[in-house]
């Protein structure tokens, strides 16, 4: 799933969405709009969560997620997520949560937000519920997310030791997740305004590429450059694999300039994004499409989730209404 806290950008596309579109043909996939997770950092101003969730689903559909081949749903519309998270929280030690690698990192990175709340500390518990509620045998992640999944696996093992084999222990599907930096060389973030969004029109894409950071040591056109420290080149590795040798040699020998490199990148970006933009226009023009997708997806997710919860309630000898 993804938190609806901002528009989706190239980092989301290359880091996850491209892979999601492929996986829906290989697995039974559930893709979740994680609006409750968004509350952990956006609780002071929730006005953008629903609008961003709507736009996020449009992007998902535009990049190729097909409701006929996967389930797209909203976390808060499947109340079993809260029920299972509550149960998992009963036997998850607080030190497990405090040692989560991203816990202190996020607090440090988001100093402008008040994260001193139970919801943020307990984020991994809700995340474990999100995964185990659908008997997920496999979860597509990058290596940087392995520690998150391992905590879920620890919770599952603890539950199964106490109550019997009640939850499925998920395995990682490790997929290459290229990490793109923002246009200015910093982490790609909506707060920095340094991303190319999937919905950006061609003119905006061109303007953003023109402002991208290149080799800071290459001051004049005739100076040779170093592609290894050029942010534009890191994008070209994904967008122009057939031109890498030409770019690399041309940059190092000053046969091509940064303007030439950026012109090619702009062209390749618009080749990638135009079908997504076109599909977005079609989706937005079809009244009620997103609502229908979510209504059907929410219903399917509830059915799957309730099957798991019946098993959990029985294992814990809880009341079954």
Radius of gyration over all CA atoms, rounded: 22 Å
Q: CATH fold name of the largest domain, please?
A: Rossmann fold
Mean pLDDT: 93
Q: Please summarize the sheet with the most strands.
A: 2 strands, parallel
What's the number of domains?
2
Number of helices: 14
Q: Into which percentage range does the β-strand content fall?
A: 5-15%
CATH class of the largest domain: Alpha Beta
The run of helices and strands is: HEHHEHHHHHEHEHHHHH
Overall 3D form: globular
Number of strands: 4
Question: What do we call the CATH homologous superfamily of the largest domain?
Answer: HUPs
- Which architecture of the largest domain does the CATH hierarchy give at level 2? 3-Layer(aba) Sandwich
Characterise this structure.
The protein has 321 residues and is mainly alpha-helical. It has 14 helices and 4 strands. The strands form 2 sheets. The protein has a two-stranded parallel ribbon. A two-stranded parallel sheet has the order 3-4. Helix 10 (202-210) packs antiparallel against helix 13. The two termini are 29 Å apart.
